[in-house]
Write a structure and sequence with these properties.
By secondary structure, this protein is mainly beta. The chain has strands spanning 3-7, 10-13, 18-25, 32-39, 46-51, 58-60, 68-73, 78-83, 92-100, 117-118, 122-127. The model has no long low-confidence stretch (mean pLDDT 94).
């Protein structure tokens, strides 16, 4: 049974940092593309950052480029999202997602419906 468990969310002031973690179990982590998505009330779920294999291709939404860094530690089956210079508009529920990546994939999927496994989410609230 695949499980993804996020942690690290919370309430912070604008300009501060948070690091989200997502620990996976029940899958061969190395073979999976991983992504961070977020959803604010009344809005669609959007890709924040995605990563293929370790040291593989990464994607960042324009709104977070230069502020967020995605990384993965395959030895620990863990995905990270370092979020710096947080803004109130970053406030959302953040979800970790995983999908098995074909060997010839050029990069990680970017649409939420392309991901098979999801965590329960961790809330990030940024106050102004």
């Amino acid at each position: 049974q695949v499980q993804l468990v996020e942690s690290g969310g919370g309430l912070v002031q604008a300009g501060r940092s948070l690091r989200l973690s997502c620990t996976a179990s029940g899958l061969h982590f190395d073979d999976y593309a991983m992504g961070w998505f977020r959803q604010a009330p009344g809005k669609e779920r959007e890709a924040v950052s995605c990563i293929s294999w370790s040291l593989g291709a990464t994607y960042y939404a324009d709104s977070v480029k230069g502020r967020f860094i995605i990384s993965r530690d395959d030895a620990k089956n863990t995905l990270y999202l370092q979020m710096n210079s947080l803004k109130p508009e970053d406030t959302a529920m953040y979800y970790c997602a995983a999908v098995l990546l074909p060997p010839v994939a050029a990069g990680p999927p970017l649409k939420f419906y392309e991901y098979k496994y999801w965590g329960q989410g961790t809330q990030v609230t940024v106050s102004s």
